[in-house]
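Example 9 (inverse folding). The structure is encoded as follows.
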């Protein structure tokens, strides 16, 4: 059985109500250890779900206003709720990047959209820059006829100055990787105010996709979540 174009369009419309978008998809190879679909049999295909810019932010905020203040991981909870409802409507299994055991979401994303990681580890999108995210995936036990993704222009290859590697006061990102403890200590410390209120300075220094940059309140929310780790 093949998932119809009309079904995919219906999924996209259901996601758009919450500011989310389809981020491509792919078919699992016959010899691949695919995760289980809705019935428990191996999934045959996946559609990735995410966002461009902060489009879901007002919908998430409206939902959050109705939740108890003690709710843990609210963005993950909201994402699971939204994707779960869509999955139920269209006969899919919804999975999340924070599910345990972890699923290879970054590899799936590169496979679905042909993207590559930036020096910060976030996938660089030719339109959205670093201002996008993946909120989950819908796994189907039907095949999906999708064209192979075009190899996207990797904007980092065209960027000589690499301001994303020079703006952090504690050099959290380098060729050696991400200095998690140094970053966390700075964000939590007395000089971390600009990061706490306006987001990662390295990420904000990237010149690409600035029309999609998250608003300060959204960046502060994500940084607060990071600082609680």
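The amino acid assigned to each position is listed next.
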């Amino acid at each position: 059985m093949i998932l119809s174009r009309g079904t995919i369009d219906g999924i996209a419309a259901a996601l758009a109500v919450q500011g989310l978008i389809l981020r491509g998809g792919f078919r699992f190879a016959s010899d691949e250890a695919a995760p289980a679909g809705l019935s428990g049999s191996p999934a045959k295909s996946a559609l990735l779900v995410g966002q461009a810019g902060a489009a879901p932010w007002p919908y998430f905020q409206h939902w959050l206003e109705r939740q108890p203040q003690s709710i843990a991981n609210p963005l993950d909870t909201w994402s699971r709720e939204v994707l779960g409802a869509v999955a139920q409507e269209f006969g899919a299994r919804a999975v999340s990047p924070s599910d345990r055991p972890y699923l290879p979401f970054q590899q799936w994303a590169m496979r679905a959209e042909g993207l590559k990681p930036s020096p910060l580890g976030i996938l660089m999108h030719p339109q959205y820059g670093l201002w996008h995210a993946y909120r989950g995936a819908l796994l189907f036990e039907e095949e999906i006829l999708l064209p192979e993704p075009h190899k996207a222009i990797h904007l980092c290859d065209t960027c000589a100055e690499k301001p994303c590697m020079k703006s952090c006061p504690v050099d959290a990102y380098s060729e050696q990787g991400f200095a998690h403890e140094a970053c966390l200590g700075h964000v939590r410390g007395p000089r971390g105010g600009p990061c706490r209120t306006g987001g990662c300075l390295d990420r904000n220094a990237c010149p690409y996709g600035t029309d999609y940059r998250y608003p300060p309140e959204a960046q502060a929310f994500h940084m607060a979540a990071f600082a609680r780790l």
